[in-house]
Specification:
By secondary structure, the protein is an alpha+beta fold. The chain has a single domain (2-22, 45-103, 131-186), classed as 2-Layer Sandwich (Alpha-Beta Plaits), CATH 3.30.70. It has 4 helices and 9 strands, in the order ββαβααβββββαβ. The strands form 3 sheets. It has a 4-stranded antiparallel β-sheet. Helix 2 (54-68) runs antiparallel to helix 3 (81-87) and helix 2 packs across helix 4. The radius of gyration is 18 Å and the shape is elongated.
Length: 187
């Protein structure tokens, strides 16, 4: 087993779209509701500090492992995918050091039902972070995932999968990042 702390830096803006359950006020228009509640679409802790959900990084890694399809030497056609899914964990949410009240926003014309090409469009406002850097810690439970394999897969996840709303994996431009430093330790 190994732990790795990784310094991550943004390549493109990061935008979040967390579902929230802030109730609409009596007779409040859709536009007024969006204007009042868009910050609630950010993931933030009890102090209002925005974070990258640990599962966003985990799922980006899993998707990159599947996309790469790298085979395990000496194991026939077996790939690393199942080892990333079962044995690699992002240990905690990754704070970005930005308070939700200080984050910028972007307003877009989005499909009303969230389905691309479905018809009716409405204005939606989302939090957006133009640049960020942070440290994430991962635990690798199976030594089949070597440091070299992990580093290659996380790099591919940052460039080709991304995190957040309108990320690369979904054909978007946001949420791309690069790892700049890896600090490894054995458990």
């Amino acid at each position: 087993m190994r732990k790795v702390t990784v310094h991550l830096e943004s390549i493109s803006p990061y935008s979040q779209s967390r579902q929230h359950d802030v109730p609409k006020l009596d007779k409040e228009t859709h536009e007024a509701y969006e204007k009042r509640t868009w910050r609630e679409k950010a993931n933030y802790d009890e102090n209002g500090i925005i974070y990258i959900p640990a599962m966003a990084l985990k799922q980006a890694l899993d998707a990159a492992a599947k996309k790469l399809g790298d085979q395990i030497p000496g194991k026939g056609k077996a790939t690393y995918t199942k080892f990333f899914v079962a044995d690699v964990i992002c240990d905690a949410n990754v704070p970005l050091g930005i308070h939700k009240d200080d984050v910028a926003s972007i307003t877009i014309n989005a499909n009303a039902d969230g389905v691309r090409g479905s018809g009716k469009r409405v204005k939606r406002t989302f939090p957006v972070i133009p640049q960020w850097s942070a440290e994430a810690t991962f635990t690798i439970l199976d030594d089949t995932v070597t440091p070299e394999v992990f580093e290659r897969t996380l790099t591919a996840a940052g460039i080709g999968i991304g995190i957040g709303r309108f990320r690369a994996e979904k054909g978007g431009l946001n949420g791309r990042f690069r790892p700049t430093k890896f600090s490894w330790s054995k458990i």
